Amino acid sequence: MTPWIFDRRAMLAGALALTAVVIAFVGAFWWLQTRMMAVHVRETYSLLDQDLSLRQRLGELLGRQTLTQTLEVRRAVLPEAPEFVLLDARGEALVGDLKTVPGGRAVLSAPALRMQFAHEDGSRSYVVARRLDDGAALIISRRDNAAREMALSLGLAGLVATTVVILVALLAGWVFNRFVLDHVSGLAAAARDIQRGQMAARAPARQRLDALGALTSTVNEMLDQNEALVGGMRTVTESLAHDLRAPLMRVGRAIGAARGAAEESVREVHLRDAETEATRALQTFNALVDLARAEAGLSRDAMEPVDVGALTADLAEFFGPLAEERGQRLECRIDSCQVVAHRQILAQAIGNLLENAIKYAPRGSRLELEVHKLGTGGAEVLVRDEGPGIPEHAREQALRPFVRLEGAAQQPGKGLGLAIAAAVARLHRGKLLLEGAEPGLRVRLQLNPV
């Protein structure tokens, strides 16, 4: 089970981001509440002004007595309606009582003849006055609880919304933290397995094309590269111990025999044998080094644009006389194909394929050599012979180092030709395919863009 681990910097960044979101959210609600209250106050004053204008017009049309009677009837019928006070020119109350109006006469000297008063219970009173033509004054006041209810409702909505934002942010942070920890734990587990000697261990592959998935893929590619490097070193070490011991022992015996020979001619024979064995050992060593470099991908640094067609044509010209000595016909169909490749190691791989074809094809047979472009932008080198071929069940085994199949023991070699060609194909992100040609063997060396 993954432990509860958090990165402090990530937590700090998350806390700062959450704080910023909460502040912005609260600020937006405060602005919204302020704007709604401003609209409510403006609408309240507008309604009171309209009511005053209506009463003033009524008095102008029907007279002061009718206005007074109308206000009295309204006070009696609608006691909860806004309070009206009618003052005469001397300031005496004709209708209503100034004591019921917050601020009393103060509204008559207020700017725009308007005033607001806040009460202890959270309600507010709005007072508006209007001067009449004869010096009288009409005052209307309204006690409003809607502002308090709006403030409470908006505050509660803001609190609930802020709580939801915080909870969602915390949940998203927890899920993201677990998601990241799963990736990191997979990488750590793979590293621990590799430390224990399990070189094939890899971090769990992620199907999503995200940054962490790309990181996991890159780490796995790095582990593949490291495993290839270790495998290449192991191959060279084991192969050197396996295949160079006998030639070096024969070199030592030949040199010892030469030292003990009394006759010059016998000494020359033993020295010639020692030289031959040393040459074979050096060839084997070079082949093993090339194989290890290809398997480990160390040759990628020396890659450059190479015309595979021109390179293959040069090799065909070099191996042509060898085929003619055996009475074989080398038919070439070569197209120009530019790929990024390691020229030297690619030439060795193609040369190995041509050498094998000439070696195993019967005398007087036909050999085919083709080079053409692939749809992926790479190139394919095809070599076909009319020899005994390789059975389908043994083709995978034939690509391994030091494997000599039945019927190949009488031919010179160490079983490294196809193994090196397969490693070179992998170095160029391609593959080596062995196919039956009926009769013979068809080998396809495919190279993809690196």
Could you give me the name of the CATH homologous superfamily of the largest domain? Answer: Histidine kinase-like ATPase, C-terminal domain
Q: Could you give the distance between the termini?
A: 40 Å
Give the SSE order as H and E letters.
Answer: HHEEEEEHHHHEHEEHEEHHEE
Question: What is the arithmetic mean of pLDDT?
Answer: 80
Number of helical stretches of at least 4 residues: 10
The main β sheet shows up as: 5 strands, antiparallel
And the CATH topology of the largest domain? Heat Shock Protein 90
What overall geometry do the principal axes of the alpha carbons give?
rod-shaped
The CATH class assignment of the largest domain is Alpha Beta
Portion in beta strands: 15-25%
Question: Uncertain spans, ≥5 residues at pLDDT below 50?
Answer: 407-413
Calculate Rg over CA atoms.
Answer: 49 Å
Molecular structure report:
The chain is α+β, with helices and mostly antiparallel strands. It folds into 3 domains: 8-150, Beta-Lactamase (2-Layer Sandwich), CATH 3.30.450; 205-296; 300-447, Heat Shock Protein 90 (2-Layer Sandwich), CATH 3.30.565. It is built from 10 helices and 12 strands. It has helices spanning 8-62, 64-77, 146-195, 211-243, 245-260, 264-296, 308-325, 343-360, 395-398, 417-427, and strands spanning 83-87, 93-95, 114-118, 124-131, 137-144, 304-307, 329-334, 338-341, 366-373, 379-384, 431-436, 441-447. A 5-stranded antiparallel β-sheet has the order 2-1-5-4-3. The chain has a 5-stranded mixed β-sheet with strand order 7-9-10-12-11, with helices on one face. The protein has a two-stranded antiparallel ribbon with strand order 6-8. A hairpin with a 5-residue loop joins β1 and β2. α1 (8-62) runs antiparallel to α3 (146-195), α4 packs antiparallel against α6 and α7 runs parallel beside α8. The longest helix has 55 residues, at 8-62. The protein is rod-shaped. The protein starts with 7 loop residues before the first helix and ends with a strand. 23% of the residues are buried. The model is unreliable at 407-413 (pLDDT under 50).
